[in-house]
Model the fold of this input.
Amino acid sequence: MSDPALLRELLTDPRVSKDPRQHWPMWIDGRITPDWPLFTWVAVTNMFTAYGSDHQRLRKLVSTAFTARRTAALRPRIEKMAADLLDGLAATPPGETVDLRENYCYPIPIQVICELFGVSDEATREELRRLVDSIFNTTARPEEVAATFQGMHTVLSGLVALKRETPGDDMTSVLIAAREEDGSRLTEAELVDTLLLMISAGHETTVNLLDNAVHALLTHPEQLELVRKGSVTWSDVIEETLRAEAPVANLPLRYAVEDIERGGVSIKKGDAIMAAYAAAGRHPAVHGEDADRFDLTRVNKEHLAFGHGVHFCLGAPLARLEAEIALPALFERFPDLALAVPSGELPSVDSFISNGHRGLPTRLTPSAPVAG
Done:
């Protein structure tokens, strides 16, 4: 579903569910097995797959941990992360190629999310990164899909056990202790799967946001010049990137609770619905015939990159904060930053969910002169 008006309606329609256990015949009939490429996306038990009152309960519990105060307090730490990474990059010999996705766009979000959730062990961080990459890889072989699902639950169950024994000032500990007013807790499965959702979606999407913003500015130098002159803001960069290159291209899945007729579209009860956020951001009905053009002066930068309605991403303020710190710091430190290969040679990640590049090879400074 890519029409933004229709998508907004469906995202808030009570006749559309995210719970396959109640409303998707293929799941109910056992036709979806652990080796299916999107198994992890529909098999979890958290607010990503909850419906109605269950979703309200889980979102309320999670929101007690993901507060505006906790997000805002991260600013000094994110600024320090960016500065340290840039200091390391500055040691690169002139003209040498650096993969900015790997060495800048990725480290900040993964460090932030791991610190938020109390993952201090470096080996555990690396394992989480590997598993999250695999979750978003929709070309993974069946055996990898099954192993990733099991591996993620093993790692996160271990994190929960650790935080039960030694709780700290982190979101894992807060979620463990979280209660509703009536005293109900997250079940063990809901707790582990909520961590899976928050840790995976909480950094992969921001990696893509940074990656796509850097790429867009380097391939549109006239737009970068507008930023440098102060004609537009870094907020404009972030929102236009989210519109033109949504970090999540397509998000599975929703299910029709009953037959639905909307905007001339017929959806049958039990049908699975894919939300096409990237396509929605480029819809000509909203953004005109130049909807596919990256334009920081565009008045309407409306997008659905963070979802809509009751499913709007709780981590959106954190993603924006990381980008508004990381992007200006990078371009101020390296004003001669340039892609090291033609844009058309940059392969995309192996996913129809995640929207980014496998790598972002750049040169931070011009090549050193050759001695004559």
The beta strands are 16-17, 97-99, 251-256, 260-262, 265-267, 272-275, 338-339, 361-363.
